[in-house]
Amino acid sequence: MKKKDFILIGIVFLIALAGFGFIRWTQHDGTQVIVTVDGEEVYRTDLSKDQTYEIPVEEGTNVMKIQNGEVTMSKADCPDQICRNHAAISQTGETIVCLPHKAVIEITSETGTTELDGITQ
C-alpha cells in the first residue's frame, strides 16, 4: 500500500465517524409506547412507567414489558421468537414486530409522530 492509500482510508474513516456521530446526536429518547395489532392501535402509554401489558392477539399471547425506560417483549408463543429475542428499545422510531401475531410496538415522541430521516424528507 502506498501513502495515498492510507490517506484515502483515513478520510473515508473520518467521514464514516462523522456520519455516525451525527446520527447519534440527532436521535432522541422516546416518551411514549404505542402498541398496534393488525394495524389498529390497542394501547398507548408513557415510557417512564414500569409496567407489563398483555397484548390482545387472537392467535396466541404476547406480553410487553416496560422497565427503566426500555421496552421488551417478555413473552410470546409464536414459533420463531424473533420478537422475544429482539433487543430492548427506547429511542424514537424503534420498533419490535411480531409478524405471526401482527403486533407492533413502537416508540414515539410526545406528539406521537416520528421525525423524518434523510431518505423520507
UniProtKB/TrEMBL annotation:
It comes from the Bacteria. SUPFAM superfamilies: N-utilization substance G protein NusG, insert domain. Pfam families: NusG_II (PF07009). InterPro entries: NusG_2_sf (IPR038690). This is Protein export element. It comes from Anaerostipes butyraticus. The lineage of its organism: Bacteria, Bacillati, Bacillota, Clostridia, Lachnospirales.
